[in-house]
Amino acid sequence: MNLNYNDVSKLPSSLSNLCKLTSLYLCHNRLAELPELNLPSLRELHLANNCLKELSSEVLGGLRGLRVLDLRENKLDELPDDITLLQMLERLDLANNTLSSVPCHLGLLPHLRSMPLEGNPLRLLRRDIVQRGTRQLLQHLRDKLPNPASSYPGFGEDSCHPDGGTFKEAAEERLPKLPDKWQLRNTRQLVYSEKAASVPEELLQSAVEAEVPAVDLSGNTLAALPDKLAELSGHVKELVVSCNHLTCLPSYLATFTHLVFLDVHANRLDALPDLSALKFLRELNMTHNRFTSLPECLRGSQSLEILFAGDNRITEVDVSLVASWPRIATFHINNNNIGYLPPTLGNVTQIRSLLVEGNPFRVPRAAIIAKGTNEIMSYLRSRVVPGAE
Q1: Pair (112, 259) in one structural domain
Q2: Is residue 330 assigned to a domain?
Q3: I need a labelling partner for 75 at 20 to 30 A (CA). Which of 129, 160, 209, 388 fits?
Q4: Strand, coil or helix: 55
Q5: Which own/partner pairs from 15-21 qualify as long-range (CB within 8 Å, at least 24 positions apart)?
Q6: pLDDT (0 to 100) of residue 387
Q7: Same domain, 240 and 162
């Protein structure tokens, strides 16, 4: 069910009658809270860009089958301890909230492979740990557990996960077993994060045969993406190759025309191939690389909503490029080498989240930057010279 881009402010409890519902999209609405729901078949819940301030234990208890929970761009300042009731969770997107920390027992979730946290004021988690990627972050959280795993919600002494053994054993071991095509068809994603210099050919072949829509090769030491990956171009919607040693991306990425999400952060990239054919690309994470400019290859993209370009070497902001993205809502260019922030950027009014701190420009002043996006954009507009574009 797709209810994105509406003015929904409240959900009826009668939603629980949709007992066979598997996906629910509610992004870009005005939801401030969720009712208690019982949706045992729900696998994906997308709530990005709402006004949620908290999640109740009652809500989580009725959603235990979730694989994907997207809470990006809300107002969450903490997660409930009962978040680990979602023991089948594979992707938990918490980016751009107001979290100062996350529960350590999240590290026990046996299937969790992706947990974006950028854009949160994390005071109790070191930045370098967050930047190492989900795998190492979860290990760090497990290492900090003050109590036995059995003391946390959903993790009894004898609690077992679908692969056998206890949840703690599953989380700590994460043995690099290569799934066959039947397993990949069931999970609908290829995840291979083993600090490896190459990806097994047989694993990629299984992914091709399973027609997986999501590929995660993060946390390896890949110097180049395998040619075999090109055979997945007709199916993949999410591609994560972060935290590798990539110095360039293959031109065959232009054939991934269904791609919605691309994460290349924490590599050694200074350029992107031509991505103009990616008409559905909604989110690009290119942080922590060596880029000196914004992605010109995406000029005119009608679908790009989220661009993370922080921690690079970008020297200027091409406002005409940013303005060519009619749906751009999140634009992060923090920690670059930008010496001048053009006032006309304030006219790109579709921007809802702007991060610019950590650049050498002197205007706007740090006091204005600290007040957030609305104040920055308003200040920039006030400095636009009449007639300027």
Answers
A1: no
A2: yes
A3: 129
A4: coil
A5: 15/39, 16/62
A6: 66
A7: no
Residue type, 292: T
Number of domains comprising the chain? 2
Residue 292: is its pLDDT beyond 80?
A: yes
10-34 average pLDDT score: 89
Could you list the residue range(s) of the whole structural domain that residue 39 is in?
1-175
Please report where in the chains the tokens 């969790």 appear, as a residue: 112
Domain for residue 387, yes or no?
Answer: no
Lookup: tokens for 267:
């590599």
Question: For position 134, what pLDDT does the model report?
Answer: 80
Give dist(CA 383, CA 385) in Å, integer: 6
Q: Is the pLDDT of residue 161 over 50?
A: no
Q: Which residues contact 108 (CB under 8 A, 6 or more apart)?
A: 84, 142, 145, 149, 152, 155, 167, 168, 171
Selection from 138, 207, 213 nearest residue 178 by Cα:
207
Are 66 and 86 within 8 A, CB to CB?
Answer: yes
Cα angle 160-163-167, degrees, rounded to a multiple of 5: 40
3-state secondary structure of 235: coil
The pTM is what? 0.61
Q: Read off φ and ψ for residue 307, nearest 5 degrees.
A: -130, 115
Q: Is residue 248 part of a domain?
A: yes
